[in-house]
Amino acid sequence: MAHATTDEATVPAADGRIPGRRGTQTRERLLDATAEMLGSTSYRDLKVVDIARAVGTSPATFYQYFADVESAVLLLGQRLAEDAHELTAPIEEGNWAAAGAYDAALTLVDAFLDFWRSHEAVLRVVDLAIVEGDRRFREIRNKLLYPVTKALTAVVELHSRTNGRAVDPAAQAAVLVSMLAHVAEHRRGNEAWGIDRDATRHALAETVRTSVVGAA
Q1: Which sign, positive or negative, has the C-alpha torsion 175, 179, 181, 182?
Q2: Contact call for residues 107 and 131 (beta carbons, < 8 A)
Q3: Is the dihedral of CA 118, 122, 123, 128 positive or negative?
Q4: I want to staple 106 with a disulfide (CB 3.0 to 4.6 A). Which of 70, 176, 205, 213 is the partner?
Q5: Which residue from 152, 33, 30, 36 is spatially nearest to 101, judged by alpha carbons?
Q6: Which tens digits make up the pLDDT trace of 170-191?
Q7: Using one digit for the tens of pLDDT, what is the confidence trace for 2-31?
Q8: CB-based burial of residue 39 (10 Å sphere; 0-12 exposed, 13-18 middle, 19+ buried)?
Q9: Per-residue confidence of the chain (216 residues) as pLDDT tens digits?
Q10: Which stretches does DSSP call E strand in the chain?
Q11: Domains and CATH numbers, the chain
């Protein structure tokens, strides 16, 4: 479900007005409908009239808040990027000491899998737009994943010093975050190939654990 931020409360609608309470509620309903319909409709095929109809309003009302479908999806993506804390928390709060590292890694893996499952439709559009060279959507992905990479870099750096391992913490973290995002994005395909979800979780967790703290 879309969630308005404090800053958005003062952001003008497409027609220049500052939405009031009812206007904000209407905008949220339109965003919720957009996100839901992306789950069953191709981004390129999604029409303003379909979104408006889904919430019982008119295309004219949609255009009061968004210039086009892309503008609504862009806002949904920007909001996702603000939820990076859901992915950094398992790193910052986890016990990465040798005895607890596997559990910390598994918690991080589950956070990625759950995040991508919850926001799959919007994240798919973000990735599509990045492939097409849209820098706005690339900034969204960077804003989402950079804090995760930074937090993981700190953990890898700490353990590389402790264990005397000659690794580049930033490179190690960047590879791990890319791996987690990629597997989370393609989990449906893996499951279609008969790869068990639980087996995937544990394979990822073991890879993360080893990369962070070294071999047992």
Answers
A1: positive
A2: no
A3: positive
A4: 205
A5: 152
A6: 999 999 999 999 999 988 888 8
A7: 555 534 544 445 555 555 667 789 999 999
A8: exposed
A9: 555 553 454 444 555 555 566 778 999 999 999 999 998 888 888 999 999 999 999 999 999 999 999 999 999 999 999 999 999 999 999 999 878 899 999 999 999 999 999 999 999 999 999 999 999 999 999 999 999 999 999 999 998 877 767 789 999 999 999 999 999 998 888 888 898 999 999 999 999 999 998 765
A10: none
A11: 9-67 (1.10.10), 81-213 (1.10.357)
- Distance, in Å, from the CA atom of 181 to the CA atom of 209, rounded to the nearest integer, reads 16
CA 147 distance to own-chain centroid: 12
Give me 103's structure tokens. Answer: 């559990």
Structure tokens at 95: 């016990």
For 119-196, where are the alpha helices, taking DSSP H only?
120-131, 135-163, 169-185, 187-192
Residue whose C-alpha is closest to residue 118's, from 80, 146, 73: 80
